[in-house]
Specification:
Length: 220
């Protein structure tokens, strides 16, 4: 096997390494994504709901206070209701800055009589999806907000704090970085060697031609 072939094979191997390690690192981060993990006991998912009232932007809730929160909570708990869970919603804050923003905490506790049933709690992303699909009919009817709708729902905590991925993920990212550096160095070496090889071959060809011309001249 020639030098160029060996170098090409080595580059291919180095390409496989970073891709595999990067995939593992991504999977490692996903494992610590709090929006994908089902909630445990005594845990609540936190969500920020952006709502509007049709073309008017955000409804005026300045003077609605607790009554507005109560209707929102009723609609949300009805939409999140499940047979084996006591689902409760706490309206933490309602603000109108830049539209109607509602911050809520959702907890899902199993009924005491169904503790042993193997059914999981919804994870925050699933709760997000349901909160967006709820029609909020009680809130619309009580406050004449016929155009009230959810623009989007986001999680207040999408990922764990920095560093929570731990030593495994840090090692994975270090491996990826080192492999990319090694791949870059090897690629540069490959280019340099190939250029030198071509230059050397060109010199040999030129020298051979000169020798041939010299020999032909002497024979004359």
């Amino acid at each position: 096997m020639t030098t160029n072939a060996l170098l090409s094979f080595a580059v291919a191997l180095l390409l496989v390494g970073p891709i595999s390690a990067l995939a593992k690192a991504v999977n490692c981060h996903e494992a610590f994504d709090t929006t994908l993990r089902p909630l445990g006991d005594s845990e609540a998912s936190h969500h920020i709901i952006n709502m509007s009232d049709g073309d008017s932007g955000g409804p005026d809730v300045t003077n609605l206070g607790d009554a507005f929160k109560a209707q929102l909570r009723r609609d949300m708990e009805d939409g999140l209701k499940r047979p084996f869970f006591n689902t409760s919603v706490v309206i933490q804050q309602v603000s109108t800055g830049g539209g109607l923003l509602v911050e809520v905490a959702v907890s899902q506790e199993k009924h005491p009589n169904h503790k042993d049933i193997p059914i999981r709690r919804w994870n925050p992303r699933e709760v997000n999806s349901i909160l967006k699909q709820i029609h909020y009919n009680n809130t619309k009817g009580a406050f004449r907000l016929r155009g009230l709708k959810v623009e989007y729902v986001s999680s207040a905590e999408i990922r764990a704090v920095a560093g929570s991925c731990g030593k495994t993920c840090s090692t994975m990212y270090l491996m990826v970085a080192l492999m990319f550096v090694a791949m870059g160095v090897l690629t540069c070496l490959t280019i340099i060697i190939r250029r030198r090889t071509r230059a050397s071959a060109a010199k040999r060809i030129k020298a051979g031609r000169n020798d041939l011309e010299k020999e032909m001249t002497e024979n004359k």
